[in-house]
User: What shape does this take?
Amino acid sequence: MSAVEKRSVTIRGHRTSYSLEKPFYDDLVAIAAARKLTLAALVAEVDEARPRDTNLSSALRLHVLDWAKRGADI
Assistant: This one.
């Protein structure tokens, strides 16, 4: 099992952090590349769309899962 790593990012002018296992992080990087976005832009997009009662780390994992379920080539 991959250890959870904490990462920081600046979105909409403020610093925030999220914690992801390496496989989720690697897929998030691949999704950003496939969509021709920076990782920070993708994280900001997910952050903007998530319900306020969902934490950012969970929202990012669900985004990766949704991408995979849709059969996207990452």
